[in-house]
């Protein structure tokens, strides 16, 4: 299920629950997750509260992943939270629309839910993310933007970082 709590500063006309749900299901299948995934699309202040509560970091972030306990992972893979405000800034910086940025963040979070961790896996997550990005017809992925000097930003400097359970992804 996707819950959208849009900030008043962001136009979400390009985002539809049905379209994002279709993408989420395709990406979930590509990643190999069996269980359902709940997604919250919210504002920076919500992600800041979650980031503080689960990571001890008092700042907003773009996406957080919360893997489900093993006992229920067959039916529920976990939860993702995405900041629409941060996504909008990153979309502008990388020259694509909000819908594509939200999809990039969802894919990245799904990979974390499936157990990938690009801080420790010697490039396995980056390779899988790039492969799925091409299959799902997405612009440059989060990991590629951080590690590929050719993936230039148009406007603001945006920093992304990896995540584990309940951490920024």
Automatic annotation (TrEMBL):
One of its GO terms (molecular function) is metalloendopeptidase activity. Gene3D superfamilies: Metalloproteases ('zincins'), catalytic domain. Its main location: cytoplasm. Transmembrane segments: none annotated. Its EC number is 3.1.-.-. Pfam families: YbeY. It is an enzyme of class 3 (hydrolase). Zn(2+) binds at residues 108, 112, 118. Binds 1 zinc ion. GO terms for cellular component: cytoplasm. Its cofactor is Zn(2+). Keywords: Cytoplasm, Endonuclease, Hydrolase, Metal-binding, Nuclease, Ribosome biogenesis, rRNA processing, Zinc. InterPro entries: MetalPrtase_cat_dom_sf_prd, YbeY, YbeY_CS. It is found in: Cytoplasm. Residues 148-169 are annotated as: Disordered. GO terms for biological process: rRNA processing. Residues 150-169 have a biased composition (Basic residues). Single strand-specific metallo-endoribonuclease involved in late-stage 70S ribosome quality control and in maturation of the 3' terminus of the 16S rRNA. Belongs to the endoribonuclease YbeY family. HAMAP family: Endoribonucl_YbeY (MF_00009). This is Endoribonuclease YbeY. The gene is ybeY.
């Amino acid at each position: 299920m996707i819950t959208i709590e849009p900030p008043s500063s962001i136009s979400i006309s390009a985002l539809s629950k049905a379209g994002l749900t279709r993408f989420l299901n395709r990406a979930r299948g590509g990643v190999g997750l069996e269980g359902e995934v709940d997604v919250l699309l919210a504002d920076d202040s919500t992600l800041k509260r979650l980031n503080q509560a689960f990571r001890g970091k008092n700042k907003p972030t773009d996406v957080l992943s919360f893997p489900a306990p093993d006992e229920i992972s067959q039916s529920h893979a976990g939860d993702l939270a995405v900041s629409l405000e941060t996504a909008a800034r990153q979309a502008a910086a990388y020259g694509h629309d909000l819908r594509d940025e939200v999809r990039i963040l969802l894919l990245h979070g799904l990979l974390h839910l499936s157990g990938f961790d690009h801080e420790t896996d010697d490039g396995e997550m980056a390779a899988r993310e790039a492969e799925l990005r091409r299959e799902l017809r997405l612009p440059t992925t989060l990991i590629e933007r951080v590690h590929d000097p050719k993936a230039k930003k148009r406007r603001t400097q945006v920093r992304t970082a990896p995540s584990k359970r309940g951490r920024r992804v």
